[in-house]
Design a protein that fits this description.
By secondary structure, the chain is mainly α. It is about 70% helix and about 0% strand. About 20% of the residues are buried.
Length: about 170
């Protein structure tokens, strides 16, 4: 079947109408205000790979202690994000949505097999790439992941001894 210019333009216009209608239906179904951040399974798995790369030298060496420290840090990240303004929570949710979506994850990070099976060196490499990337958006995403991970880690009293922090003054607590 031979395609001429007129049928090509008709197909393009029809496709644009379908996409516009789909977008309108999606917006009508979705609530107009931003939703609170939810740390779902894939976002939790992404943090499970990112946190050890961010805290490489600070985590305990024994496997049980390391696993507990990573889990505590992930919960701390969730708490920190939950206390941010809703608009910022939406932006962080979008970041984790990109990290969870397989094609975007593969393209942006190079992690192809999912976060549960991600090679720690590959994760560290993508974080380093984002830290120095020429696009400000990826540098900002790195900064968000960095600040959330380190903030959640050093908010835990178990991490204070390693940096010589005695904890808050007794008079203030």
């Amino acid at each position: 079947m031979e395609t001429n210019r007129r049928s090509f333009l008709k197909a393009g216009a029809l496709g644009a109408l379908v996409l516009a209608a789909g977008g309108g239906i999606y917006r009508a179904v979705q609530s107009p205000r931003p939703q609170r951040f939810v740390l779902d399974g894939e976002a939790r798995a992404a943090l499970g790979a990112i946190v050890p790369a961010m805290l490489a030298g600070a985590l305990p060496l024994d496997p049980a202690g390391r696993k507990a420290a990573v889990a505590g840090t992930i919960e701390g990240v969730h708490t920190a994000i939950s206390n941010l303004p809703l608009a910022v929570q939406k932006e962080v949710q979008d970041l984790f949505g990109l990290l969870a979506l397989a094609p975007a994850r593969r393209l942006l990070t190079g992690v192809s097999g999912g976060w549960e099976n991600a090679d720690p060196h590959q994760v560290a490499s993508f974080l380093q790439d984002w830290r120095l990337h020429r696009f400000a958006l990826l540098r900002t995403a790195y900064s968000a992941l960095h600040d959330l991970s380190l903030g959640a880690w050093y908010a835990q009293p178990a991490a204070w001894a390693a940096i010589g922090y005695p904890g808050p003054m007794k008079e203030l607590s």
